[in-house]
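for the record, two folds in this file. i put them one after another cuz i was lazy. first one right below, seq on top, structure tokens after. the second one comes after a little note so u can tell where it starts
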Amino acid sequence: MATKEFKKAARIILVGAPGVGKGTQAERLMKRYPQLSTISSGDLLRGSVINKTPLGLEAEAFIRAGNLVPDEMILKLILNELKSKRWISSQSSVTGASPAQPSQNPSASFILDGFPRTATQASRLDSLIPVNLVVSLITPVNIILSRIASRWVHAPSGRVYNTDFNAPKVTGKDDVTGEVLTKRVDDDEETWKLRLKKFDETSQPLLEHYDRKGALWTVKGNSSDEITPKLFQELESRFA
């Protein structure tokens, strides 16, 4: 795959239903655009807990109590990460009265993964750093359900196969170990229909928020291969 360079910083969020292929698109984007990196709120949270940072110790107390980690804490983790990369001013704070002034250097480009998930979280993020492209990935529900029905996993390693487009070399066996592949416990149609319904309900206000900001762009396709070239074309028209 040929690589391309951005001329200005891209600050991207990918929004899409479970099974739509956000991970696949993120990987392809980072291969295509070497200046692009990913900032995962989940990874930042896990890392801070493992390293017992002050924020990590606070977060662990919430997790141990069975509570969600507050949005304010996730925002601080993201802010600290951006500061450490010198992509925003070291003076920026979650409680600041105005948005941080992000670097326009193309190397300060990122995909923000895992946050925000709600319009309220998005509003808080706006006050920290402005996102300049929100991609809504849409694939028909029947296609997503078909993918899940064809999905098999090697539980010990986490390797995932799909009998439609990424089949194992030997049917029902892991390519590396030869061990038997299994289905995920929650990979049944009714569970997935509920997950997709919940996603639609929670994502609509989020998408409307970014539409009002003029940052929303929607792309539709039946497969990742159909969506990827459209995504490349849009990013290059905006940032390259």
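(here's the note) second protein begins now
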Amino acid sequence: MPSNMSLFSVNAILIISTDDRSRILTKYYSAPHAPPGSTNQPGVNPYPTVKEQKAFEKGLLEKTNKQTSDVILYDGRVVVFKMEGDVMLYVVGGGDENEIMLFGVVLALRDALSILLKHSVDKRTLIENYDILSLAVDEIIDDGIILETDPVIISSRVSKPPTQDIASVKNIDLSEQGLLNAWEFGKLKLAERMRQL
């Protein structure tokens, strides 16, 4: 019987620019029930400070910059990555984590961003649409637990409302008189429904 019976599988998700090595989005996760004070248990964040995180990211980017494979073992952790435009998408898991599952996460992220951003996944577009990027990551992973890997479902949950719906929302009267009118309308409709019963 395996000792690790947790759904926690992702230690970090990183999106780093390859041009200037800047961080676009970095999220490090810790298991909710990890023993305090230990750094070698599965699910414990080994990079608790920003300085350690940046050192890890710098070394990771140097190691993967010229790689032809998509999976490496770095610093005792399984790292899967994809290059998309001028950014690198990384998913970091524990040393004993399933590479295929982690690779599915990085592919889901890449494909969902491609759908949401109309096939324009680069540093500038990601920064301009940081809200969509952050929501997409949150739809895929929650506290290190993989929730969804279907890019179509992820993009449908994240996408912005159509512009014609926004126009109709702008015409709503939210003044005191408008709210009183809505209240009266609701009372009339409720009274009609009660009479029908």
